[in-house]
Amino acid sequence: MTKCINIDGVNVPFEEGQTIMQAAENAGVYIPHLCHHAGYAPHGSCKLCSVRVNGRVCTACTFPAAEGQSVINNSRELQADRRRLTQMLFVEGNHNCPSCEKSGDCRLQAVAYYLRMEDDHFPLFYPPRPLDSSHPDILIEHNRCIVCSLCVRASRDIDGKNVFAVSGRGAHKHLIVNSPSGRLGDSDISTDDAAAHICPTGAILIKGQAFHRPIGQRLYDLERIDGSPHAGEASHEA
Amino acid sequence: MQDFITKTVAAAEGQPQRLLEMLRAVQQAYGYVPPDAVEFLSAQLGLPRGEISAVVEFYGFLSSSPQGVYRIVFSDSITDRMLGNQALFRLLADLLQVQPGVVSSDGLVSLDFTSCTGLCEQGPAALVNGWPLPALTEDKIARIAGLVKQRIPLLDWPGYLFEVNDYIRQPGLLLQNPIAPGQALQAWRERGAAAVLEELEVSGLRGRGGAGFKTALKWRLCAEEAGPERVVVCNADEGEPGTFKDRVLLRLYADQVFEGMTLCAAIIGARQGFLYLRGEYLFLLEPLRQILRSRRELGLLGENISGFGFDFDIEIRLGAGAYICGEESALIESLEGKPGVPRNRPPYPVARGYLQRPTVVNNVETFLAAAAIGVYGGAWFAAAGAGRSSGTKILSISGDCARPGIYEYAFGVEMAEILRDCGTEDVLCVQVGGPSGTLIDSSELQRKLSYEDLASGGSLMVFNRGRDVLGIVQNFTHFFAHESCGFCTPCRVGSRLLQNQLDKIINGHGSAGDVAELTGIAHLLKNYSHCGLGQTAANPVLHALQRFPELYESRLKKISYEPGFDLDAALEVARRMARRDDPAAHLAQTEEEAHD
Amino acid sequence: MKPKVRVATTSLAGCFGCHMSFLDLDERLLALAEAVEFDRSPLTDIEHCGVCDIGLIEGGVCNSENVHVLREFRRQCKILVAVGACAINGGLPSMRNAIPLEDCLLEVYRDGVGLANAMIPSDVELPLLLDQVRPLHEIVKIDYFLPGCPPSADVFWSFLSALLEGREPELPYELLRFD
Q1: All structural domains of chain A with their residue ranges
Q2: Which uninterrupted H or E stretch holds C78?
Q3: Residue C28's domain spans which residues?
Q4: Chain C residues in contact with B582 (beta carbon < 8 A)
Q5: A106-128 pLDDT, tens per residue?
Q6: Number of structural domains, chain C?
Q7: A81:B494 CB<8 A
Q8: Chains with ≥3 CB–CB distances under 8 Å to C
Q9: What percentage of chain A has pLDDT greater than the value 90?
Q10: Largest CB tally within 10 Å, which of A134, B176, B407, B532?
């Protein structure tokens, strides 16, 4: 017999060794996340996938599914707190959506929409962060980095290159490049690398592709991050 | 430099896990970790340079920019503050003419603050190039300034400056009944592993670091894990402000601690052991290595221990200034030569710990107690204590008391009794278990020391009436923000938001809504943080809010809202550059003040 | 007849794009005019905000005058609304926050290319710049936020019609966007 966990009253099958997130994804149940990506080693840092498992808060992307688990995913409390966590990510960096070419295709922005985030709530940090445009084809805009480490894992585990690492401590946590100068241009990253494409925000971008899809036709103009279609056409005259 | 790196790598047997040790050597030799050193280490160890830089930038005692020949850091624990560390810091800065956090122009000295150095009963304390300077006074500061200016090598500084005392004020079951080297192993040999584990079970011993996991169960779980290699780790990274009992135990009872580790190894079948010693206790390193050597000579460590056909040895690894490494999985990461970022659990260290091997991590005091239990039996230990908290607990007591130092109590003792013993009067509040523990006020002194009531990893700080509770809370809150590893969102961002929000209220910029905002941030930290640091970081704020709400209220303005930053100061640059100081060149902080 | 709801609007460190978007209400403006009358606004040229039901503010806070105007709105308006990206998080003007104000002023008024009579302006009539551009919610309490750069006319319509009908405004998913 198939083993099941229960997410918000729905039975979701899982296989031994799967996390709650994996079971949910297989069943088409959306749990908000940013540092998780199917096929990547679980990380558990953004905490957006926090769910209540038998009453206790756990990250769905790291916690193993087990028979009999009762998981609360979509509660008013969790959604409100996930919204606050997302707001933390916004105030910590400089997320200026109107000037960002990832806007509309950005998972951070799309999660914020999903969580009905209308403002930043907290005071903004406005950290001074550099831009690394040293590479001919790839740009790092550190202002938008949420230190999810997806690029670190992509480069290490998929590309076999170790182009990126996360350095520093606490509020000084930041992405660094593994090259003698510390600049991306002196690293061996290429546009074919998974690491060049995995960024959930506009922190790592392929150059020369800005705004190639008009507003209204971008990924999250057409569907919500939870996979559901928009109820109506987004109206935007720009 | 390449030669130096080659020698350093060779001294560490080329093991990437010993990266921290190599980086400490580089830091000591060059005053920082230069980019070239990172390159050479990367080439020789086969590690990406980014991973090496990440380690350098994680640990407080390593730096990627040059530090002074004399790097002096003052302990900034609340107890150091109460003993006047701020004034002494300023005095030294004046005498040496340096700015805090900036290397002097001649490269001679850098001066800064650091988190609690574990010398709370003999503060104010500082470290110079990692060596402790306890019980600082104005005279000592003057002397130190003179030594620095004359560029006297540290080795030639007078010994009294470095003299650390061990104040055991009230020994109990464990401290009064030390075992002789080899005694616990003899018991194991005579009675067998199962019987010793049974004694440990009977003793009811639980982890003394504060979390309170049953020791016998932890050892049993680890023993039951499949795998050829098991590891025993002693957590001597006592970084909780106000804790210093492990420092004393490692000075006076290290042999017994090592015996406890060896006993654990014998029972679970481990060959490899580590003592993870906090970087602040550098001065204990050589004496501890000496004890390890003598144990090897006695046949109590190494191959075929005491002829019992069992091999086990212990290596000491030093930390480098990171509170988070007291968390067991962060400690394991650090042991592996990485930044001390706590792991996801499960799996737990007993299943996959050091290099993914089944690992027991216990506190210094736990191993000390386990060795004694091995000799004297579980019932002997369980006779002390109460309820599910059996045996005794060793406390480090500091703050406003006549006799700060080490006290050992049977669990169940009331706070009032402890306070009588250490000589307090007019107590306002007590911080039990350090900043991550519990703040109690003077109406709660009948509460008991126990896992069920007031748990403590060993810290107990006393505050008299006249102390500023919000100042204490502020010190603790800044400590957590400084020590957050930055891995997870709620702690990385939330600990800073909490700090800023608390500062806003304390600095008199708060209104009623700001306290609600403070508790909102606290809620997120407590419920969603990755590890104990973030989950407890808001305890000081919340505990003080429960007990002293009027203190918060007294700082609030009776207005709807006020900015958290100084509005008028935000105009300062523009004012200066426009050479203006007219009324229109200034801003009132609040709407109400603008109309006064 | 029901008394009309008084609305004030202003732009602080903004581009008036939010106001332009408001005008995109087109024929719906006529319906709005039935229920609403405007106090201080670029639409009316009234200089100071009187007692109002709703204040709509676009733009962040970049100078001392912005602070005074924002406070006036907060004082006079029952409901104060941060309209658009700049009001909510500083937006485009806040991109200067990464550059020290001194460097900004020197570049613009003294060291920049092609400046005649280069000098830092100094006149009591001129508002002084804050060292950082700030969102509205860091200066005064804000009741509602309308995100977007600009928020679309539909956002204004959805929000205002809810308030006018006495409902709690709630932006439908499709109208919530940051660009």
Answers
A1: 3-74, 131-206
A2: strand C77-83
A3: 5-95+130-175
A4: 124
A5: 999 999 999 999 999 999 999 99
A6: 1
A7: no
A8: A, B
A9: 91
A10: B407
Nearest to B497 among A45, A122, A179 (CB): A122
Closest of B192, B333, B164 to residue B252, by C-alpha: B164
Measured between alpha carbons, how far is B523 from A84 in angstroms, rounded to an integer? 11
Point out the residue among A125, A169, A176 whose CB comes nearest to the CB of B53.
Answer: A176
Whole-number pLDDT of residue B150: 97
**pLDDT confidence of residue B63:** 96
Half-sphere exposure of B139 (CA within 13 A, CB side): 3
In this prediction, residue A212 carries a pLDDT of 86
Second-level CATH architecture of A3-74: Roll (3.10)
Tell me the chain B residues in contact with residue C68 when contact means C-beta distances shorter than 8 Å.
Answer: 594
Give the pLDDT band of residue A233 (cuts 50, 70, 90).
very low
* Tens digits of residue pLDDT in B433-446: 999 999 999 999 99
Q: Which residues of B touch C (CB under 8 A)?
A: 513, 560-561, 563-565, 567, 570-575, 577-580, 582, 584-585, 587, 591, 594
**Rounded alpha-carbon distances, angstroms, from residue C45 to B562, C30, C38:** 30, 20, 10
* Domains identified in chain B and CATH numbers: 2-58 (no CATH), 71-165 (3.40.30.10), 169-383 (3.40.50.11540), 389-467 (3.10.20.600), 470-555 (1.20.1440.230)
Position C23 in a domain = yes
Each residue of B152-203: pLDDT tens digit? 999 999 999 999 999 999 999 999 999 999 999 999 999 999 999 999 999 9
Instruction: Locate the DSSP E strands across B451-581.
Output: 459-464
Q: In this structure, how many other beta carbons lie within 10 angstroms of the beta carbon of residue B547?
A: 17
Strand, coil or helix: what is B232? strand
Distance CA B588, CA B489 (A): 35
Residues of A in contact with C82 (CB under 8 A): 119
Is the ipTM higher than 0.90? The answer is yes
- Cβ B20 vs Cβ B320: under 8 Å: yes
Best residue in B591, B592, B596 to probe C by mutation, most C CBs within 10 Å? B591
Query: Which chain A residue's Cα is nearest to C98?
Result: A128
Chain A residues with at least one Cβ partner in B under 8 Å? 42-48, 50, 57, 59, 62, 64, 81, 84-85, 88-89, 91-92, 122-123, 125, 146-147, 162-173, 176-180
